[in-house]
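Hi support team,

I'm filing this because I wasn't sure whether my run with nicotinamide-adenine-dinucleotide finished correctly. The job status page said complete, but I'd like someone to confirm that the output block is well-formed before I use it downstream. Pasting the exact inputs I used:
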Amino acid sequence: MAKIIDGKAISLSVKDEVKSGVEELKKQGIEVSLAVILVGNDPASGVYVNNKKKACEYCGIRSLSYELPEDTSEEKLLELIDELNGRDDVNGILVQLPLPSGINEDRVLDAISPLKDVDGFHPVNVGKLSIGKKGFVSCTPAGVIQLLKRSGIEISGKECVVIGRSNIVGKPMAMLLLKENGTVTVCHSRTADLKEVTKRADILVVAIGKPKFVDDSYVKDGAVVIDVGIHRQDNGKLCGDVDYEKVEPVASYITPVPGGVGPMTIAMLMHNCLDSVNINA
Ligand code: NAD
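And here is everything the job wrote out:
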């Protein structure tokens, strides 16, 4: 029987800490603000943006919302980013992905000032993470580290296996676990014998993007299993990349879906917004 890592409760503690930090800054006359840019009418993106705005409200962060039509040109979007980069009253800038086809995502993300890049996607921040310098860190993997630490799980010296090598989750996850002195292996779609590697893991982080892919045959007895995946099933319920029913009996700790990693992403975004004041100082 695994202990369930309660991402909802942990994310609330993180948001409450941010809220206190924001209040402290307000007393010094400093306001924390986030500009959120949404291009087009993707319904899922609309929901994510709304959740981010709600979290800002909870934490006392001022959110500026830019909702642009589907046919916005890349040039117009770059102009807006340029304007926001230059504004002293904007600490963080976030462009909701995916962008409509025709807009080059890399060019847009690279245009955000690394000092305001609260998503941690800019090459400068990715580089800083890899050489251990302070900068913005991608929110989902940063959230996983908080889940582990705040659950009292030791990372140092542990065999950590990450499945997935995306720029947003897998790669920064590996860097963060390395920073915490884990012994890290990254697996991906070309890994020859996936189970042989994952069975070694004391801490297994799964970010594959395939529903219920990892069952108990991938997991060592007593391992900590972190499920980053999120999928809507045909019955309307959410599930992760891990087959929870099969893995929970063999793991020592496990994150549920929903209520595990998911809530941490926005909490860490709020944390990055607060941090942006120091980074900009
Ligand atoms: P991605 O599709 O960019 O990357 C998936 C990775 O998995 C790739 O590196 C690929 O090599 C690897 N992979 C695919 N099939 C594999 C296989 N059979 N064996 C081993 N490796 C395999 O996905 P992503 O953006 O990293 O997201 C992963 C999952 O996490 C998705 O389900 C996504 O929805 C979810 N996600 C959740 C949050 C959150 O806030 N909870 C945030 C980002 C992503």
